[in-house]
């Protein structure tokens, strides 16, 4: 039931003083056009009903706290509660961005140290913390690339190369920045086809956007050759940091030859990812691009921290104030807690978990590309259709009946009936075994009675939804007549 269906006339969960007790009419404080002419249509419930309703809704939601969440490419890992506590300390949560710099030296120190930590982790020379999310970081990276070539007088560079396996935000960000997108195909090994790349690389290319490891969970082992090709043509190399969780502590994008990097603090460095917000997508650059970064950047002169707006070639501000500060705190606490060895261990466990699960599941269904993966892998679900007459979607829906969030499906687009699985480093072997056992159980169901999968889910709060109608004709608010 919706909260409006629970509503009963006359029930209240709060009480306000009568208007005469104020000594004035509250409406007198507002301009006439801002005063309601009619009472708002709000549900009327007791406080207990209100609490029970929203608590009940929260229990219907799946989360990392309540179950396995192997959502490929999204790194839905558990994040320590202590970092949330730190972000909520009064000295951080109760400050305001309009305060003078002298009163927020601690906050500026956190930002400065986080910038330096991210430089060390990625091999970059300078960072901006402003971007509000990964896709926003991509856009900032593309704007930096655009500004760089404008200053060089190379306005002919209007194209960006993106692999066919890339995140969908990559081409979108490039187009928003004013570039034309050129797609480079993957080879038979699931990595960028070097010959095809060489054929399309010329002086019209501003840059190449890559994720390494890529969205198939495979490391681009020819990255040195790729960066040599790009730089020989005067192009820049852009790193989508969505998959940094697989290599942090072991390899650095800057050492691979990348010129611009964006990170997802809300995926890799301890902020809940998805529906909880906010995110953070810092962008790092090599020294020759540092003067183009958004303003302000945090500086330290040996005595005090300050915000520097004096970057003549800056692309300007890209975010209100200085970014999502609470996310910085959690990321910095995470980095300090783990240290270099801990970050390295986290990526090792992410890769180990993925390969353990890959080894178990490939006994049931083949991977899109054979061999060792990094932190995630992609199963080729076309076998489900040919062998059992069910689709990847049907398996995903049935997993919900077993209390497991489905993996990413139908992405990357170059894999037919794809299931993209990322277990992350925070899951135990027992959790992985439960998932693999459940997957096998579902495939046995498909073999004996595929209709069970086609009708799933049966034991969730709602059954299978009409997703096409929900997408094309969404109902985003309640109305009295609905």
From TrEMBL:
Its cofactor is pyridoxal 5'-phosphate. One of its GO terms (biological process) is glycine decarboxylation via glycine cleavage system. PANTHER family: GLYCINE DEHYDROGENASE (DECARBOXYLATING), MITOCHONDRIAL (PTHR11773:SF1), GLYCINE DEHYDROGENASE, DECARBOXYLATING (PTHR11773). This is Probable glycine dehydrogenase (decarboxylating) subunit 2. The glycine cleavage system catalyzes the degradation of glycine. The P protein binds the alpha-amino group of glycine through its pyridoxal phosphate cofactor; CO(2) is released and the remaining methylamine moiety is then transferred to the lipoamide cofactor of the H protein. Residues 346-448 form the Glycine dehydrogenase C-terminal domain. The glycine cleavage system is composed of four proteins: P, T, L and H. In this organism, the P 'protein' is a heterodimer of two subunits. Residues 37-289 form the Glycine cleavage system P-protein N-terminal domain. Keywords: Oxidoreductase, Pyridoxal phosphate. GO terms for cellular component: cytosol; glycine cleavage complex. It catalyses: N(6)-[(R)-lipoyl]-L-lysyl-[glycine-cleavage complex H protein] + glycine + H(+) = N(6)-[(R)-S(8)-aminomethyldihydrolipoyl]-L-lysyl-[glycine-cleavage complex H protein] + CO2.
